[in-house]
Automatic annotation (TrEMBL):
Leading EC class: hydrolase
GO MF annotation: an example: lysozyme activity
A Pfam family per the record: Lys
GO biological process: defense response to bacterium; killing of cells of another organism
Entry's EC annotation: 3.2.1.17
Keywords carried by this UniProt record: Antimicrobial, Bacteriolytic enzyme, Disulfide bond, Signal
Recorded family membership: Belongs to the glycosyl hydrolase 22 family.
Identification of the protein by name: lysozyme
């Protein structure tokens, strides 16, 4: 019985280690250093807003859709078009396995989000359309040290 409990604890612990939930400013700084600010004309604040509403900055977020596709990772990238899983994958536009979007290292997810954004822009994300589009998203990066300096600082 003790061996079974230890085995369960090991697997639960392994699953927890792989997931990562970023703090807002930490995520904003990582996105900025990854070249996401103004990538595909999407502001850094929009990216941070989008991922807040898509996954709450959780790299292991996974949600099933009505069409039997699944959204994966911090950007909630859809399996039908962008990655390969056991579901109704068709295009695999990012040329990756969907599970690669669930690791605590968001590099693959960021690279795939860039592919999605190049092709469809921010409108590819429902969370962005619902919560960020046309709204003041500056609070999502406020106080993070990633804001663009105002013109008056250059005088």
């Amino acid at each position: 019985m003790l061996k079974l409990q230890l085995l369960v604890l090991f697997f639960v612990g392994a699953a927890v280690v792989q997931a990562r939930v970023y703090e807002r400013c930490e995520w904003a700084r990582l996105l900025k250093s990854s070249g996401m600010d103004q990538f595909a004309k999407i502001s850094l604040a929009d990216w941070v807003c989008m991922t807040k509403w898509e996954s709450s900055y959780n790299t292991s977020a996974k949600n099933r859709n009505r069409n039997n596709s699944t959204d994966y990772g911090i950007f909630q990238i859809n399996s039908k078009w962008w990655c390969k899983d056991d579901g109704p994958s068709k295009a695999n536009g990012c040329n990756i396995m969907c599970t690669a979007l669930l690791t605590d290292d968001p590099t693959v997810a960021i690279n795939c989000a860039k592919i999605v954004a190049k092709q469809q822009g921010a409108k590819a994300w429902v969370g962005w359309k619902t919560h960020c589009e046309g709204k003041d998203v500056s609070p999502y990066i406020a106080g993070c040290g990633v804001e663009m300096p105002s013109d008056s600082n250059f005088l």
